[in-house]
Design a protein that fits this description.
Number of strands: 2
Radius of gyration: 30 Å
Largest sheet: 2 strands, parallel
Helix content: 40-55%
Strand content: 5-15%
Order of helices and strands: HHEHE
Strand order of the largest sheet: 1-2
Mean pLDDT: 82
Shape: rod-shaped
Low-confidence stretches: none
Structural class: alpha+beta
Distance between the termini: 75 Å
Length: about 80
């Protein structure tokens, strides 16, 4: 009866119910995905970044090469940053 007397209101009620339920389901799926994401994205506390500082013109590259070699031999260094 209600749908015959007020077809637009009935459509609006059904449509808003579908949108509300869909929004709740999608938000629950997103929250579950965030909660149960893999720990591979988080780097280990042992992973480090080596910083090689280079200033101006390099007349004698021996210091820079020694730093690079030192960081290359260290297995906990996962990346180098040249500053």
């Amino acid at each position: 009866m209600f749908s015959r007397r007020h077809p637009y209101l009935h459509f609006l009620l059904i449509f808003s119910s579908i949108v509300s339920v869909s929004a709740i389901v999608i938000s629950l799926i997103v929250l579950m995905g965030i909660k149960y994401s893999t720990q591979d994205d988080i780097p280990d506390a042992e992973d480090k970044v080596g910083v090689v500082e280079v200033k101006g013109y390099i007349a004698d590259p021996q210091d820079t090469i020694q730093d690079i070699r030192k960081y290359r031999e260290d297995k906990s260094i996962k990346a180098l940053l040249f500053e």
